[in-house]
Amino acid sequence: MIEIINNIYYIEPSKEAIFDSAKYIIDTMSDDGLIIIDPGLYLNYFTKLRENSLDSKKINHCLITHAHLDHYGACYKLLEMNNDIKFYVHNADVNNFEEIVDEELSKNFYPGYKYSPVKVSVKVYDNQLLKFGDLEIKCLHTPGHSPGATAYYVEIEGYRILFAGDIGGSALEHSGGNIDDYNKSMCKLIEIEPDILCEGHEGPIRPNEKAEEFIRNCIEFNDLFHKAIEESPSDIQIWYKLAKNVYEMKDYSFALDICNHLLDLNPGNKKGIQLRNLIKKQNPPEVDFIKVILKRRDEYVKTKHK
Ligand SMILES: [Zn+2]
Question: 232-304: which CATH topology?
């Protein structure tokens, strides 16, 4: 846990889960107590709060960037601790937030995890201002990764701080994403020129030049990802470019997964073999997401055309 600036804290994703979100805590220094932005999947960070003299029972507000389980899975536990806590979710993500999550999906991505749904308290909308003590937080609807994806913007001590959720997440249609919306939303976030970009898994990225570079890299990744999964899944060149892009973003497990898929399609591919050797030097743990994603994509296309 680190204090990003006065009264704003970052807690890194838990290593217990394959996926877990970054969490951010704002101490409003008022009767509103603490705000948490995405509580993640597990509540195993309360000792860290205590070490920083923060009382977890004073988490009165929980702002959700988007309704994906790795970001909101711990909500029901927050509710158990504080019955008065308010959950803020964009209208377009309310259904996903309040329903029991897709069992098949959670089996693959969150093995062993059990969730019990909670109700949304405040449905947020684009440009809404939320007030907590002297603090004003602006909600920015940024669909693309999910229909109701929302970034929260605040200015504190002259810093422009953006809690942006999953900039680096996918924008695939079968998982509720939309690539055109995503591109528009990312441009909107670049225009804000945040000094500190609090990303949904990567943690805080600063200064502004780095934040902008990160967003642009994610746009490039998603363009390739969309082409590989949705537009031209048999195009070897696209899969190679995607593997290289993900390797350069230092996500070695995922790069290996993509490279393995490329070599399944085209076992003798020299550039692919070279790249896989390079990736393996980083000793990444093996994951198998591409197959799951492609399978779900196929099922989605089939039901869509029925
Ligand atoms: Zn997500």
Answer: 1.25.40
